[in-house]
């Protein structure tokens, strides 16, 4: 029995030793498998360069800040009419909204007595002149006649020009006071536009500049700046601009008093570059940045550049900063690229050199530029 136990101990010892040796033999194998994956000295292998879309930028000396404002379409002429003396209205020949011709009577006091007096004085004047009466007598009759003419005129509302009665509040039997406004006539002439614009924008404008006016039905019309108020309105910090419509419009093409849109060119002398908004990233402190391609030895890397945004227009921005003519700027996906990362430009590099954008003038004829107008 003792021999049997000794024999079992011997086999247990040999089994334990084999297991121990087996586990030690497995360790190099596992380590060897790991080494085959990484390889000696390959733990810091560089990732392949990232392909990026780029645009080539061009420097310009100015940009156009197109400013859009809304104004009111107004008649070319407006006249508010009232009697030159007090009296009782006996005749009203028109109603509000009707058209009138220049010199046409709109309303009138009773002037039968005045007209009879005028006829008598006129006949006496003719007799005095034909009968070679004293000069003093002729002068007195002429004075009486002029006074009667003035009283008849002040008793009559007469249209000063052709147009439409936009308002008429006179009626037969009405007692009207001197100067009381009873009628308003708007002319048939081409309408004008009055718009208040920022003082900064007004400084870049001048009389004679051609513009486009867009009316409420999206109908475009040509216009010229007629006048610019020399004084800034202290309450709104704006200056009033009067524009004259030069397009041939009929009365059916527009509605007086309606709102119209006017775009003004405002050229800014600032050296900078146009960038797509997708190429820009907001940074802390209100700063912006973009990334350009730089050559470092045999590599092309992404380099960070700080920029200042001057003007935004649609999907582009006019900027200045640490950029140079011809730089290749990463156009999009900048959040996926870090400074110093190896990159290569995708095929088809875009070119972001662009002309100055002008306010809409596509309907305007080709006319010689007005003196003083900045060339685009």
- Largest sheet report: 6 strands, antiparallel
**What is the CATH homologous superfamily assignment of the largest domain?**
RNA polymerase II/Efflux pump adaptor protein, barrel-sandwich hybrid domain
| Average pLDDT over all residues | 81
* Regions with little confidence, pLDDT below 50 for 5+ residues: 1-9, 18-41, 361-376
Strand content: 35-45%
Outline, from the CA principal axes?
rod-shaped
Going across the biggest sheet, name each strand in turn. 3-20-24-23-22-21
* Total strand segments: 27
User: Class of the largest domain in CATH?
Assistant: Mainly Beta
Q: How far from one another are the termini?
A: 116 Å
Q: Could you please say which CATH topology of the largest domain applies here?
A: OB fold (Dihydrolipoamide Acetyltransferase, E2P)
Structural class: alpha+beta
Task: Explain what the structure shows.
With 376 residues, the protein is an alpha+beta fold. The protein has 3 domains: 50-63 and 269-351, conserved putative lor/sdh protein from methanococcus maripaludis s2 fold (Beta Barrel); 67-75 and 190-264, Elongation Factor Tu (Ef-tu), domain 3 (Beta Barrel); 81-186, RNA polymerase II/Efflux pump adaptor protein, barrel-sandwich hybrid domain (OB fold (Dihydrolipoamide Acetyltransferase, E2P)), CATH 2.40.50.100. It is 21% helix and 36% strand. It is built from 4 helices and 27 strands. The chain has helices at residues 2-38, 112-130, 135-154, 199-202, and strands spanning 50-52, 54-56, 59-60, 63-64, 67-74, 78-82, 87-92, 99-100, 105-109, 156-158, 163-168, 175-176, 181-187, 192-198, 210-214, 220-228, 238-245, 259-264, 267-268, 272-276, 281-282, 288-296, 299-313, 316-321, 328-330, 343-345, 350-351. It has a 6-stranded antiparallel sheet, with no helix packed on it. Strands 5-14-17-16-15-18 form a 6-stranded antiparallel barrel. Strands 6-13-11-8 form a 4-stranded antiparallel sheet, with no helix packed on it. A hairpin with a 2-residue loop joins strand 22 and strand 23 (299-313). Helix 2 packs antiparallel against helix 3. The protein is rod-shaped, with a radius of gyration of 45 Å.
């Amino acid at each position: 029995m003792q021999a049997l136990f000794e024999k079992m101990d011997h086999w247990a010892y040999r089994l334990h030793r084999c297991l121990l040796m087996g586990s030690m033999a497995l360790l190099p194998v596992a380590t060897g498998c790991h080494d085959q994956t990484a390889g000696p000295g390959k733990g810091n292998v560089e990732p392949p360069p990232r392909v990026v879309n780029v645009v080539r930028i061009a420097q310009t000396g100015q940009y156009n800040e197109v400013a859009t404002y809304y104004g009111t379409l107004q008649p070319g002429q407006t006249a508010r009419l009232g009697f030159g003396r007090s009296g009782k209205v006996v005749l009203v020949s028109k109603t509000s909204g009707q058209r009138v011709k220049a010199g046409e009577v709109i309303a009138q006091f009773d002037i039968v007595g005045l007209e009879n007096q005028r006829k008598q004085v006129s006949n006496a004047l003719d007799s005095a002149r034909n009968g070679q009466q004293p000069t003093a007598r002729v002068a007195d009759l002429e004075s009486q006649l002029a006074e009667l003419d003035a009283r008849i005129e002040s008793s009559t509302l007469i249209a000063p020009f052709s147009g439409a009665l936009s308002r008429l509040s006179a009626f037969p039997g009405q007692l009207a006071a001197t100067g009381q406004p009873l009628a308003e006539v708007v002319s048939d002439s081409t309408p004008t536009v009055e718009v208040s614009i920022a003082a900064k924008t007004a400084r870049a404008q001048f009389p004679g500049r051609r513009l486009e006016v867009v009316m409420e039905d999206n109908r475009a019309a040509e216009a010229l700046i007629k006048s610019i108020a020399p004084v800034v309105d202290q309450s709104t910090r704006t200056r009033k601009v009067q524009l004259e419509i030069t397009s041939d419009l009929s009365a059916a093409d527009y509605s007086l008093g309606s709102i119209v849109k006017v775009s003004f060119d405002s050229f800014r002398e600032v050296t900078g570059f146009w960038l797509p908004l997708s190429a820009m990233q907001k940074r802390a402190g209100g700063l912006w940045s973009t990334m350009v391609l730089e050559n470092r030895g045999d590599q092309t890397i992404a380099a960070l550049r700080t920029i200042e945004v001057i003007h935004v227009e649609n999907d582009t921005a006019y900027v200045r900063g640490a950029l140079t003519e011809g730089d290749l700027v990463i156009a999009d996906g900048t959040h996926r690229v870090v400074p110093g990362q190896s990159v290569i430009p995708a095929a088809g590099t875009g070119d972001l050199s662009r002309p100055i954008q002008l306010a809409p003038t596509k309907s305007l004829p080709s006319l010689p530029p007005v003196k003083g107008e900045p060339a685009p």
